[in-house]
Amino acid sequence: MTEAAIVLPVDEADAPPLKRRRARLSGVAWASIVWLVFVVLACAAGPALIGLNPDITDVAHAYAAPNAHHLLGTDNLGRDELTRLLAGGRISLSVGAIAALVAMLIGTVYGALAGYYGRWLDTLLMRVVDVFLAIPTLFLLLFLAAMFHGNLLTLMIVIGVTSWLGPARLVRGEVLTLKERLYVEAARSLGAGDRRIIFRHVVPNAVGTIITTTTFMIASAMLAETALSYLGIGVRAPMPSWGNLLTGAQSDIFAQAWWLILPPGLAILITVTALNFLGDWLREQGDYRT
Amino acid sequence: MTTFVIRRLLLAIPTLIGVTILTFCLIHLAPGGPQVALAGEKATPEQIARLTHQLGLDRPLYVQYADWVGALLHGDLGFSYLRQAPVVQLIGQRLPQTMLLMGCALLVSVVLAVPLGVYQAYRRNTAFDRTASVAVFVAWSMPTFWFGTILIAIFAVTLRWFPVGGLQTIDTTAFDWPSRFMHLVLPAATLAIVSMAGWSRYIRGSMVDQLREDYTRTAIAKGLHTRTVLFRHTLRNALIPFITLLGGTVPALFGGAVITEQIFAYPGMGQLFWQSAIDRDYSTLLGMTVLTAVMVILGNLLADVLYGVVDPRVRYD
Prior knowledge:
- The complex is a heterodimer of chains A (about 290) and B (about 325).
- Chain A is mainly alpha-helical and about 290 residues long.
- Chain A has helices at about 10-15, 15-50, 80-115, 120-135, 135-145, 150-160, 165-180, 180-190, 195-205, 205-230, 240-250, 260-290.
- In chain B, about 75% of the residues lie in helices and about 0% in strands.
- Chain B folds into two domains: about 1-85, no CATH class; about 90-310, MetI-like fold.
- Chains A and B meet through helix 1, helix 4, helix 5, helix 10 and helix 11 of A and helix 1, helix 6, helix 7, helix 9 and helix 10 of B.
């Protein structure tokens, strides 16, 4: 590439960049939304439509290749893989969504308090965040998941309480600027209390940041589920989840059962990628608004 | 500069105290404990109670904490009753392996991410850039263990290029470089993939910003070669904020090492942490967490200092 000229990005700097970037990304963003809606609907309605029980074993038909009766074949115990995939999707998506909700709830309240009150409270709360940041998140996650390995709800809470640091810092940053706005002063002069100002005026205006972060959080919570299930401290087998199906499929590599290895892997990969794309697109929208 | 470093080190003290309190409370509030694992499955409640007393685990929490921190200040990370060895020794055996793995992963991800990011910025908004962007997003969204499994299936089981796992071929007791290297390739690639994805995105964005700067335009106007402009002018400036990012990856690498070492049966810190969490080996868990926290804090400090060394505009005061 000796003489190839460098194309300067002046066009982007001078021309309104808004339309260009938005138009380029929206295609991917659209595809992501379509995929996510499809996955949620399929997982919600699928098992009922297929009419097979994901837990009923049929050892005589174990490792059956995909056929008319079992569209994605059967696993090592003869269970219908497609039904398990969809039923597992329910679990994985719920774990992702609820864990993200827990993280966002903690992070938003924490960040809003730190950012709004400032001074010593902010210093104190942020020092606590520093403490958590000094410990690898996965260490905490593994430890808590191993200690409280039980039902789905504890799994969701454990993933949630180990991922609130990012949201807390982002919301704090947002609140720091929002609290200086005129409408906050107006609300205060009308006699609104701190709690009302924070949760009625400041936090609702940070909703862009919150939604964007939630999208990323769902993605990372779903990945956390697969990691924990791989280590045997996530969703308890025989309950299906994408992490569990993926882990189970590891032993099927030698059985050459591609229908057990690829579908759960692709399901999680495409869903998480879609969430990340969507989050990235949302973030760019937010950047241009300010 | 010296004042800056000293102030940062002083600020690290409360953080470290916080880390010790947090981990100590978490670990001691959790159900079960080393006495249960140590006593075995057939132990009677009396035996467990005796063991609890012998290990001093029935004393008030603050007394145990004070004891532990006191020993810590003397450089004593504790003793693992379960493994019958000092924690320092346990960590000492494994830390070099993990550092080697992390170092290789860092190297691989930087070597891949920098050229990719630079070329994407240079050819931005072309088909190549868009394809690479999607690929990077997919890599970023990949479950680590799935990627590791695929690597094993392809390169270890089918092609037989690399071993499935372990540290080095078993019969060799001495340090065997070629064997060690072959055992490092797949785990390092697995650990590298996620950070590689994030960094190439970052470098692409940073490079696009720098290409917009006046000095780049000047360099091109002077008639310099594309390569000279990209790598001697633009990249140098694009890499400055990247240094801070590098310092911040220490915790992610330690975390990622847990999964990676598990997949490849690699005897490092991550595997030790995982086994200790399962066994509820308090002393090992505490020692490892504190040591990791120190490394994380030092990593961040080092990144901040380097930032100033590389960028003369930064002033510490």
